[in-house]
Amino acid sequence: MMNRNISAKTTVTSLDSSKILFHNRWSFIGGSRISLFPNVSSNSSSVVHKKFSGVRASWLATSQIASSVFAVGTTAVLPFYTLMVVAPKAEITKKSMESGIPYIVLGVLYAYLLYLSWTPDTFKYMFSSKYMLPELSGIAKMFSSEMTLASAWIHLLVIDLFAARQVFNDGLENQIETRHSVSLCLLFCPVGIISHFVTKALTNSSTSKTKNQCK
User: Fold this and answer.
1) Burial call 109-147: b when 16+ CB within 10 Å, e when fewer
2) Average pLDDT over residues 123-128
3) How high is the pLDDT of residue 194?
4) First and final C-alpha spacing in the chain
5) How far apart are CA 59 and CA 72, in angstroms?
6) How does pLDDT run across 60-89, given as a tens digit for each residue?
7) Which of 44, 66, 92, 214 is the most exposed place for a label (fewest CB within 10 A)?
């Protein structure tokens, strides 16, 4: 007759049943064995879901900030271009273009977006070549972020408005038509600057011919 010696060792440990699964195995040879396995079915999916939700919420917040600043910056510069085109000789236009407030406001927006878009890889993308010079592929990767793209747009708005102001003031000083050049500066700033130089050269040439004919 087979004698069975049953020995039991009981260890009392505080276990969280929500994190550990008990699996009981019994055999004639080995007796009873209890195996403990982490319960990853419910909690892990919950953690993953929370992390995914957090990342998604963060992405949405970042996208909304970029879109909002993009809209605010674009809207902010339009009144100044409108004044320079519609009423270039009005006193309110002259005073508006002498003010530095639009550049300070846009500069603050740009600095804010630059801060939000800055990552440890930004320098790597900007100076990706072995000679520490920018490369098109690296710049393309850097501008794949909406936040970085929005900051670049604000950067362009500031530069374009500043160039338009220079064109406008030069036109007032030399009595040159600048409305077409200022309009081009809003969308195609380098073309607007070229347009102003061409207009200035043609105006000076026409003035010189008129003076010679009068003599």
Assistant:
1) bbeebbebbeeeeeeebeebeeeeeeeeebeeebeebbb
2) 75
3) 97
4) 141
5) 20
6) 567 888 889 899 999 999 999 999 999 999
7) 214
Residue 211 lies in a domain: no
* Domain hosting residue 32, numbered range: 16-46
Question: Structure tokens of 82?
Answer: 């409108």
Q: Is the pTM of this model over 0.70?
A: no
| Same domain membership, residue 138 and residue 75 | yes
Report if residue 114 sits inside a domain. yes
Instruction: For CA atoms 94, 100, 101, 107, give the dihedral sign.
Output: positive
Same domain as 33, residue 85: no
Q: What is the mean pLDDT of residues 102-131?
A: 84
Q: What does the alpha-carbon distance between residue 170 and residue 176 come to, in Å, rounded to a whole number?
A: 8
- Count structural domains, the chain: 2
The torsion angles phi and psi of 14, rounded to 5 degrees, stand at -75, 115
Structure tokens given for 9: 């060792």
Both 75 and 176 in one domain: the answer is: yes
- Going by C-alpha positions, the residue among 143, 187, 155, 154 that lies closest to residue 70 is 154
Domain annotation covers residue 179: yes
Whether 176 is in a domain gets the answer yes
